[in-house]
Amino acid sequence: MSRTRLSTVVFDAPDAHELAGFYRRLLGYEVRAEEPDWVLIGPPFGEVALAFETEPDYTPPVWPAGPGDQRMMLHLDIEVDDLAEETVRAVEQGARLAVHQPQEDVRVLFDPAGHPFCLWVDTRTRRRRGQ
């Protein structure tokens, strides 16, 4: 049986380089490849990469979506150790905090192109460690 693995998640954006720069700074990723309308970034030691493709007709999703709104197709969940600190850092890098926050241990933000993403803390692990 041949091996199958997820290698890359691709985001459409009005400016691939701008959005790649945001996630590169946020996640500490490195640029692996780039072209005029496409950028691939990833962690220094393999794992799943993120790619960004310029789409001139890109329409950002609405979250939470209402009837007829452009819906998000997926979002990233990014685990952090300090939710408050990393939320501030994400906003400093260009993210926008969503008005609707559905959970205490999760912060929903929008990247510069309007894609929702979540910062979250694993409170179950912290409770087990006594934190």
Automatic annotation (TrEMBL):
VOC domain residues are 5-126
Q: Specify the superkingdom.
A: Bacteria
* UniProt cross-references to Pfam families, sorted A to Z: Glyoxalase_6
InterPro entries, alphabetized: Glyas_Bleomycin-R_OHBP_Dase, Glyoxalase_6, VOC_core
The protein's name: Glyoxalase
Q: Which organism was this protein described from?
A: Streptomyces populi
Q: What is the lineage of its organism?
A: Bacteria, Bacillati, Actinomycetota, Actinomycetes, Kitasatosporales
